[in-house]
Write a structure and sequence with these properties.
This protein is α+β, with helices and mostly antiparallel strands and 75 residues long. The protein is 20% helix and 45% strand. It has a domain of 49 residues. The longest helix is centred in the last third of the chain and has 15 residues. The relative contact order is 0.22.
Length: 75
């Protein structure tokens, strides 16, 4: 049986339940050496009521690490 304490309620509509799923994302970010193109696999939550998407916990660190990895390749 599922534990209701692990259920995430949508911050936007306050009604729906958020289901987390791993998704691949690409992004580009400016640096002192030009734009860097990065790719990450990150946990994304989607509300079953309103469809609002949100990034999972620890996302900022994952984006930072991907940027640093691509930046280090230029040295």
């Amino acid at each position: 049986m599922a534990d209701d304490s692990d259920t995430i309620i949508c911050d936007f509509c306050k009604k729906g339940k958020v289901a987390l799923k791993l998704e691949e994302m690409t992004f580009r970010q400016s640096s002192d050496r030009g734009y860097l193109h990065c790719r990450v696999e990150i946990s994304v939550g989607t509300c079953d009521a309103c469809g609002c998407k949100s990034l999972g916990p620890g996302s900022e660190e994952i984006f930072d690490a991907a940027f640093q990895k691509e930046y280090d390749k230029l040295r």
